[in-house]
Amino acid sequence: MPRPAQPLISRDRVISTALEIIDTDGLAACSLPRLARELEVKAPSLYHHFADRAEIMAGVARSIVLEAAAPRRREPADWQEWLVTLAVNFRRVVLRHPNAAPVLLEHVPRDLLSARYDDAAQLMRDAGVPEEVHVLILDGLENLTLGAALTQAVKPADIRNRIFPHVDAEKEPALASAVKANEWRTGEKLFAESIRSFLRGAVQR
């Protein structure tokens, strides 16, 4: 389909409107006709900036990742907490846009993530973390963060921050006892401590 000679809308506006639709009505609702109606243009206008819906979704994934701010303080002595904060910030952003979680699986913006991982690798080098475990740490951090965020995002909002919300004390007494003894009372605090445990283990190996 030919593109209009002049753009009627901006690329950023298309992406932000697509994300608004997804947040409000779900991923399936974000069709090209619906997006064009929301923008008050004809569908061909979208093709001035995007080849197809997949490219728009890639832009949505990119905008979500950009929402997750990297910690400003970069002290080598605090490299573990820098990574923990990075992971927690990303998890928060995904949970802010739970309907868009599947978009991140399909359209991971590798250029943005690679740049952040390069910063993390430099910070670990400055901190004296052995270089042979850098990839172990960065790959594991991505898998843990994406997995945890996406797992939480698909849960109903009323139980999203609860830990083992459906445990039955009579049928699963050991698990119920463990939940009661758990000192990290929110999902975010438990996630942050899981990342710390992973980082300590990766370095000690």
Topology of this structure?
Layout: H1 11-25, H2 32-39, H3 53-67, H4 79-96, H5 101-106, H6 110-127, H7 134-153, H8 173-181, H9 187-204
Describe what you observe in this structure:
- The chain is an all-alpha fold and about 200 residues long.
- Helix content is about 60%, strand content about 0%.
- It has nine helices and no strands.
- It has helices at about 10-25, 30-40, 55-65, 80-95, 100-105, 110-125, 135-155, 175-180, 185-205.
- α1 (about 10-25) crosses α3 (about 55-65) and α4 packs parallel to α7.
- It is flat.
Task: Tell me the total number of β-strands.
Answer: 0
Q: How much of the sequence is in beta strands? A: under 5%
Distance between the termini: 56 Å
What class, by secondary structure content? Answer: mainly alpha
H-E order: HHHHHHHHH
Low-confidence stretches: none
Largest sheet data: none
Tally the helices.
Answer: 9
Shape: flat
How is this structure best summarized?
Helices cover 62% and strands 0% of the residues.
For this entry, give a set of tags.
mainly alpha; 9 helices; 205 residues
